Backbone:
């Protein structure tokens, strides 16, 4: 059984996958497996994966019909054998010696998952994503307390080491049929199940936010599809009625975050006709008042959302307008 399983979903990334895979294979710690999940690529990505597998027995390649990044990651979880699982996007890469640092300092803890540091190279300057600023970065936290007391939630699963048994015993898989935001939903559900989360003061993950990537291209269809994320979170709470009140507060906060993201992205494809249609669809899914309990972040905005979706939408869109007006 390898110590680490690295899961890389692959879809039409022939220009980037070499750097990604090489950054993994060049690690000083060698006891890992690399699962390359070719999600129906139509370029040479699948061929490149197969060529790598011929050279290194640690590499396993799985070819499947295109089903989206969630289905690819879920297949990786099902096929993985490692004690720990980490996810790397095929257009990103990891730092040298990261695995050795993690294994030496954190693998022997009984944490459900360990969060390392992720950076985006923005015009030659490193910007940390989801930074954690606690008095002692080696502290460990209960997932619910971390979200409520420290106000820390993470929208990305890249840059995180998950204990595989934690995922499988809690039946934690990525939501299917969502086109974006599935990372955030998977992450928040992991938080409400985690009894122990650790932080590694380790520059581990490097994000390549390329032009044309899914994270940068927004149209009205994508914005409208995010309404399904609200529905998914509501359904999750209805299907898991035995979860704690605190867990429901965290999931409710995630619903607020989805609504906020919907209107922030809608700014880029705004029309009055679309505005009324979109707001009607959002309102249909907000079938209860959003109760975030003791979570302090965005308390006033949640109150506005509960009072009027139209007022909330106007405020978010106006703020986006002002931000872009004075951006340059």
Residues:
């Amino acid at each position: 059984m390898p110590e680490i399983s690295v899961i890389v979903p692959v879809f039409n990334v022939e220009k980037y996958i070499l750097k990604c895979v090489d950054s993994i294979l060049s690690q000083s710690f060698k006891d890992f497996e690399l699962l390359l999940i070719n999600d129906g690529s139509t370029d040479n990505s699948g061929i490149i994966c197969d060529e790598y597998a011929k050279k290194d027995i640690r590499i396993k390649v799985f070819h499947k019909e295109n089903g989206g990044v969630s289905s690819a990651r879920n297949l990786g979880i099902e096929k993985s054998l490692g004690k720990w699982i980490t996810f790397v996007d095929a257009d990103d890469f990891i730092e040298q010696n990261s695995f050795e640092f993690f294994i030496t300092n954190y693998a022997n803890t009984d944490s459900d998952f360990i969060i390392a540091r992720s950076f985006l190279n923005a015009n030659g300057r490193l910007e940390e994503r989801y930074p954690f600023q606690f008095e002692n970065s080696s502290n460990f936290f209960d997932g619910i307390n971390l979200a409520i007391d420290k106000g820390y939630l993470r929208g990305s699963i890249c840059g995180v080491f998950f204990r595989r048994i934690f995922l499988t015993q809690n039946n934690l898989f990525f939501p299917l049929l969502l086109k974006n935001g599935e990372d955030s939903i998977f992450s928040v559900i992991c938080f409400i199940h985690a009894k122990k989360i650790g932080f590694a003061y380790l520059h581990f993950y490097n994000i390549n936010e390329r032009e044309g990537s899914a994270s940068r291209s927004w149209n009205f269809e994508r914005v409208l599809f995010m309404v399904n994320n609200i529905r998914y979170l509501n359904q999750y709470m209805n299907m898991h009625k035995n979860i704690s009140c605190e867990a429901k507060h965290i999931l409710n906060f995630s619903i607020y975050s989805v609504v906020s993201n919907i209107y922030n992205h809608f700014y880029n494809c705004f029309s009055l006709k679309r505005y009324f249609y979109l707001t009607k669809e959002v309102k249909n899914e907000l079938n209860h008042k959003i109760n975030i309990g003791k979570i302090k972040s965005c308390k006033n905005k949640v109150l506005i959302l509960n009072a009027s979706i139209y007022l909330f939408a106007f405020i978010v869109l106006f703020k986006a307008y002002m931000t872009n007006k004075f951006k340059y």
Notes: Residues 220-325 form one domain. The chain has two domains: 4-207, 220-325. The beta strands are 4-10, 32-39, 59-64, 84-87, 93-94, 113-122, 125-129, 140-141, 160-163, 197-207. The first strand starts at residue 4 and ends at 10.
